[in-house]
Backbone:
């Protein structure tokens, strides 16, 4: 899949998920307190949040792997593959080693997808691009850097929902200074903090930022 097609797929997925988030918000008279969220609400939101994170992570993985193997950008220009990036599995193995150790990164292919790094983590993306250095790495580094605050917010809330304990909840609360925030009792409720400049929800504002960064990455 060329990079532009990957972006089109991401845009479609995130737009659909944003519609479900906004439909949920429209069904609620107020979203300013934990009392406004029921258990079924939290379960629904946890699923939407997970899908948003999966869509972003899958896009980032595709961009880095295909850029290393060789692909085409949104303008139709060829991105030459790296000499050692014979297959997707070889890039996967190199990414695992690039996150964990000093060179050499290239070697045997990886067959355990669960061993791969967290592709949506912008700190990890910066490390991988700096070490693996596909031809379009400067553009991707700039793009993922621009998405960093919003991608991190989604990641922190998603991790808090997946591993719901006091320390993760505290980490989520530290995000609140950048938003018009209300007290929360479950991580997913932070999705509806308001970004003051756009007056949009944290999660839908983040979706827009991820789409914008993704388009820069493939351009």
Residues:
């Amino acid at each position: 899949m060329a990079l532009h097609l990957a972006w089109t797929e991401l845009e479609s997925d995130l737009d659909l998920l944003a519609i479900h988030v906004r439909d949920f918000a429209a069904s609620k008279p107020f979203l300013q307190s934990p009392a406004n969220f029921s258990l079924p609400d939290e379960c629904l939101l946890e699923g939407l949040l997970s899908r948003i994170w999966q869509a972003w992570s899958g896009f980032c993985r595709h961009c880095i792997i295909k850029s290393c193997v060789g692909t085409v950008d949104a303008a139709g220009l060829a991105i030459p593959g790296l000499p050692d990036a014979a297959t997707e599995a070889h890039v996967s193995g190199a990414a695992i080693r690039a996150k964990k150790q000093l060179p050499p990164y290239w070697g045997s292919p990886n067959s355990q997808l669960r061993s791969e790094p967290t592709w949506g983590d912008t700190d990890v993306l910066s490390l991988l691009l700096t070490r693996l250095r596909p031809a379009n790495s400067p553009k991707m580094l700039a793009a993922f850097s621009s998405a960093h605050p919003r991608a991190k917010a989604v990641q922190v809330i998603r991790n808090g929902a997946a591993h719901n304990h006091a320390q993760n909840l505290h980490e989520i609360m530290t995000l609140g200074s950048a938003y018009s925030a209300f007290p929360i009792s479950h991580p997913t409720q932070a999705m509806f903090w308001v970004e003051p400049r756009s007056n949009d929800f944290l999660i839908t504002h983040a979706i827009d930022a991820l789409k914008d960064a993704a388009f820069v990455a493939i351009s």
